[in-house]
């Protein structure tokens, strides 16, 4: 009888322990009885690159608006995890499977890098939350270069593509390379013969100015200050229409120069694998509120970004479609896996 009583007490203790554990787990992951979710600890956004670039700037501007506009009450920190074209940061977030408090900012390299065989992680390995902006490419040359528009440049490249060197910060087969190739192909250039060099040390602009390279393929915002200073000129940008803002409005699009192609540098946020659906729904709503806010509209204008909000499901479909297009182009260049 005594033994039976001890077993009964032990069983009751285990039931209470498990129940308490479940309650504390629910509190930690932010879930509630009605199936909704809210963060209950600091949120970490990973920028999978160093400070100052597009990922870092986007992450920090988003965190700033979330906090200053009280869209999200929990504190939000941004950490930089540079390396592998983004792969180091992706691996870090992948290690937080199921977490509702970790995410990273991404753009087309999340498609390019895995397709090039340089990362084991692709967009399918994460939870798409929301896309927030569209950025665009700019093709710049030195202020005293002989070309004044894209057609003049591409006419010379049609005659001898390898005589003109294009520099970008990304590796061959990644964004700065492919954004140039996509426009050049639409203009009739043999893209398999384009001479592209990768500037991994951030000296592409220096190379352009000292004459080591001829064309700088980069982001629109990276060109503004140098255009103001009169050291470079932008031959074209990859947006559908001219961008708004001082200096930006002077940049002609490829389309208005008769080249029927665009390139969108989408930028959005992803959670770890198997992020809870309730957490995804929470963040979708918050990112939509951010996208619609005047504060973030001002930031878009400041950096020359366009509004491009997509929720999780739409984002996932968009990424699948983009991946197919990129795979076709990489195969043509002999860079596909």
Question: How does this structure look, described?
Answer:
This protein is of the alpha/beta class and 337 residues long. It has two domains: 43-134 and 265-333, Bordetella uptake gene, domain 1 (D-Maltodextrin-Binding Protein, domain 2); 136-264, Periplasmic binding protein-like II (D-Maltodextrin-Binding Protein, domain 2). It has eleven helices and ten strands. Strands 1, 2, 3, 4, 5, 6, 7, 8, 9 and 10 form a ten-stranded mixed sheet that branches. The longest helix has 28 residues, at 2-29. The model is unreliable at 1-28 (pLDDT under 50). Residues 1-21 form the signal peptide. This is Tricarboxylic transport TctC.
